């Protein structure tokens, strides 16, 4: 059937998946790392990371070199991943949500889980949500199309981090976590299962829950969508017993190894239950590495700066698509984004697209035929997008134009002074333009003067920018609604004094 299946016969492919696999649409496993940079995986060139399972996905699947998230920080990036829309539309800006945040991902946004539900998919979110908790948990995953949720509603440093930053042989602890808020809860669906969460057993709980979910769905022959946004490798980097001290790279390496072990468990489960050939596994990360953690933070490889910035290191991410029998091993240099995951999943499952303005495009052609991307442009919004400034940078084909640059606290401490928090907002007119294929590190801006070709390029970039900005309707900011400490998850809601009494 490969012979007569033309390059563009994706429709035919869909039909065949249905008829050869007894009317079973594909399963989806979406693995999402946290603050993991372009240079952090063994398969992306890190010399001391131990990521055998992710590396196996890369070797036997399709590895992207030009894949982007939509924001250099957590919550907005996650909103785009799950909705296929820039965060400016859904209102998940500026910055991130906190325990007690009043807002969250608006319930009228359609997530990947909600796209798949009408087709009878079982859906689960396991790990770090970070798209809101709200009044009585009104923004939890179970309100956004997920049948099951096991996880932490926000980042695991948004509460005391006990001794997680203290690692032998260093006696000194490295950094602190947020104080003055509730201890970090582990939720199951809408109920607090543990507060504080047992950090050292957390990965095991996730791995077991995910294994059960896959096994149960496969046994019932129900198609499934597993979304696993891990708390690894966000600060504080640590690992439970299975991985602590086992990497060559210290706490960051241990956290990554612990995540990788779970990836291995999930792959084994997919094999054992016989669904691996009918499952698309996709891996990427929410934003670039938090370089301010120095040798305990992630690594953006050859890319400039990291988390918090709109340089490549803040937003270009490793990405791997694995689907034995359907995706051939290889590397693609096509432009793609987390925005494209929703339309791709919808296309592969035969689901209806949400009737909203989508920013994603279907990338099935890249996955299945190593074909061309439908995406020509990538927009770089800062952590605090506004209509006044608009986008900070824009990639068109191999060129990237910076209209504004700025460093970030999250990327401070590197020798490159452009990354530091002291590199204040700088407008560029004409924009700084880089050829990312020749200069992925954004070291050498092109000289436009006296070069008619580049003048034409500049005009084209400006047109694309104007067109994009004319199409952008900013949603009401959910994060500017602020916080109310009484909304923070508490296992003992009537207790006092808060937050310390929220301890069960
Ligand atoms: C959701 O509701 C808000 C408030 O009514 C509205 O502004 C927004 O456009 C809606 N979003 C979608 C995706 O329908
Ligand atoms: C933190 O303390 C607990 C309990 O004392 C201990 O079991 C654990 O190994 C410690 N973790 C680290 C990372 O030092």
TrEMBL record:
PROSITE patterns: SULFATASE_1, SULFATASE_2. Its cofactor is Ca(2+). Residues 26-351 form the Sulfatase N-terminal domain. One of its GO terms (molecular function) is arylsulfatase activity. InterPro entries: Alkaline_phosphatase_core_sf (IPR017850), Sulfatase (IPR050738), Sulfatase_CS (IPR024607), Sulfatase_N (IPR000917). Belongs to the sulfatase family. This is Sulfatase N-terminal domain-containing protein. The gene is ARSA.
